[in-house]
């Protein structure tokens, strides 16, 4: 834990929100839990987990159990609890941690959420609660339920050979730095921190 905190403070910049995107067919709950706990340990405030088949979201209790187990081992028991959220679901769970929030996402939280937000806006227009000229980036952001309260990802770590994020929050990653890694299976802390170091060293031009 102390090493992770020191590593986080040593970086020139630390992402506020990291997306962990798995494009591989095989998913490892233990390895994904390690990535989540390392994010929390270095001081990242928001973490999103995504796979294109929605397996982590469907089996969220299994993932949460593994995260809790690894947090107890790394961080210890004398830590406050925070909420682990599952987008577009009522399920929440308590995870040992001091400052991070986690969302588990699936494809339905991407393009489908944008379609739902557009329908909701049209409904508001039909009820004369909005006009068509009210639609802008901020209004659409507020209508998107899957990332309510979450900032856009600063960094996406994409795992697997597929050269695509496969539907991960397409509205929110316009300015996101994407770093590809071969696999999340058996990933080491050194590989994870190397990706953070790469992000800290890159110059973001924000579309300019």
UniProtKB/TrEMBL annotation:
Pathway involvement of the protein, from the record: Protein modification; protein glycosylation
Cofactor: Mg(2+)
SUPFAM superfamilies on file: Undecaprenyl diphosphate synthase
Coiled coil: none
GO molecular function: ditrans,polycis-polyprenyl diphosphate synthase [(2E,6E)-farnesyl diphosphate specific] activity
Localization of this protein: Endoplasmic reticulum membrane
Keyword RNA-binding on entry: no
Entry GO CC: dehydrodolichyl diphosphate synthase complex; endoplasmic reticulum membrane
Record's keyword terms, sorted: Endoplasmic reticulum, Magnesium, Membrane, Transferase, Transmembrane, Transmembrane helix
UniProt cross-references to Pfam families, sorted A to Z: Prenyltransf
Gene3D superfamilies, alphabetized: Decaprenyl diphosphate synthase-like
PANTHER family, sorted: DEHYDRODOLICHYL DIPHOSPHATE SYNTHASE COMPLEX SUBUNIT NUS1 (PTHR21528)
Recorded family membership: Belongs to the UPP synthase family.
Protein name per its UniProtKB record: ditrans,polycis-polyprenyl diphosphate synthase [(2E,6E)-farnesyldiphosphate specific]
Lineage: Eukaryota, Metazoa, Chordata, Craniata, Vertebrata
């Amino acid at each position: 834990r102390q090493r992770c905190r020191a590593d986080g403070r040593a970086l020139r910049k630390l992402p506020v929100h990291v997306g962990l995107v798995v494009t591989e067919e095989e998913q490892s709950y233990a390895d994904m839990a390690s990535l989540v706990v390392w994010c929390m340990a270095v001081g990242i405030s928001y973490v999103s987990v995504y796979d294109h088949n929605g397996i982590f979201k469907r089996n969220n209790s299994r993932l949460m159990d593994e995260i809790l187990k690894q947090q107890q081992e790394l961080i210890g028991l004398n830590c406050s609890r925070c909420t682990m959220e599952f987008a577009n679901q009522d399920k929440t769970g308590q995870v040992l941690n001091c400052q991070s929030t986690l969302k588990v996402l699936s494809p339905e939280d991407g393009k489908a959420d944008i379609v739902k937000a557009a329908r909701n806006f049209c409904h508001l227009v039909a009820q004369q609660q909005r006009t068509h000229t009210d639609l802008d980036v901020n209004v659409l952001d507020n209508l998107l339920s899957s990332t309510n309260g979450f900032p856009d990802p600063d960094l996406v770590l994409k795992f697997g050979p597929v050269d695509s994020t496969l539907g991960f929050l397409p509205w929110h990653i316009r300015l996101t730095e994407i770093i590809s890694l071969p696999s999340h299976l058996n990933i080491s802390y050194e590989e994870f921190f190397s990706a953070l170091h790469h992000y800290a060293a890159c110059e973001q031009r924000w579309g300019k």
